[in-house]
User: Which sequence fits this backbone?
C-alpha cells in the first residue's frame, strides 16, 4: 500500500519562513534568502562553498564548526543564519585575508605539527584566534586568577590555554602541540 505522503514531492519552505539576510563573510557581503531553520554551518558549507568549518556532532559539543562572529568564537552548528543579519563572520578560510600569507595561528599550527587527521583543525584555529582576542580584552575563564583586575588582559599560561580550548575536541589527541602553537603566538 502506498502512503499519500510518498508521492508528494518535497517542497521548499513557504516564503513566510524565509528572510533576506546579509552576512559579511570573510570581508565580503553575501545577501541570501534564507530558511529560518538554516544554521550558519550549513549556509557556509552548502551555500557559500566554505568547507573549512566541519560538521562534527551537530550539537555544539565538539567545536569542529567553530567560526568567529563579530570577533567572538561560536559553534556555527547552533546559530540560525537569519539571526546573524549584518554580522561579520570569519572562517578559517578568511583568517589570512586576501594575501597569501597565513595568519600567525595557522602558521604556528603548521610549524608545531598541531594536527594529525586535520578534521578539527579549522575549528581549533578559529577557537585559538578567539582565545587570544578574549584574553587580550580581559575576559576571564574558569581558571583565571580572581585577583586579575577586571578589564585588563589575562595572561595566557598553559592552564589558561587548555581551559579556554576545552570546548574543541581533537580525536587524534594533538592537544599538547595545539597548546604549543597557541603559546607561540601569544603577544
Assistant:
Amino acid at each position: 500500500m502506498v502512503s499519500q505522503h510518498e508521492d508528494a514531492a518535497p517542497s521548499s519552505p513557504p516564503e513566510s519562513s524565509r528572510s533576506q539576510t546579509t552576512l559579511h563573510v570573510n570581508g565580503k557581503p553575501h545577501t541570501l534568502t534564507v530558511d529560518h531553520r538554516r544554521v550558519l554551518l550549513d549556509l557556509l558549507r552548502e551555500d557559500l562553498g566554505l568547507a573549512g568549518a566541519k560538521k562534527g556532532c551537530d550539537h555544539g559539543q565538539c567545536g569542529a564548526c567553530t567560526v568567529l562572529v563579530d570577533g567572538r568564537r561560536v559553534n556555527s552548528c547552533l546559530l540560525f543564519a537569519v539571526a546573524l543579519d549584518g554580522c561579520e563572520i570569519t572562517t578559517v578560510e578568511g583568517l589570512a585575508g586576501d594575501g597569501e600569507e597565513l595568519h600567525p595561528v595557522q602558521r604556528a599550527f603548521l610549524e608545531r605539527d598541531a594536527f594529525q587527521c586535520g578534521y578539527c583543525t579549522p575549528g581549533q584555529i578559529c577557537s585559538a584566534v578567539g582565545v587570544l582576542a578574549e584574553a587580550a580584552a580581559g575576559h576571564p575563564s574558569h581558571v583565571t586568577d580572581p585577583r586579575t583586575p577586571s578589564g585588563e588582559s589575562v595572561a595566557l599560561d598553559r592552564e589558561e590555554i587548555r581551559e579556554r580550548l576545552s570546548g574543541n575536541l581533537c580525536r587524534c589527541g594533538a592537544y599538547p602541540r595545539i597548546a604549543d602553537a597557541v603559546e607561540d603566538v601569544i603577544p
Summary: The two ends are 68 Å apart (CA to CA). Residues 121-136 form the longest helix (16 residues).
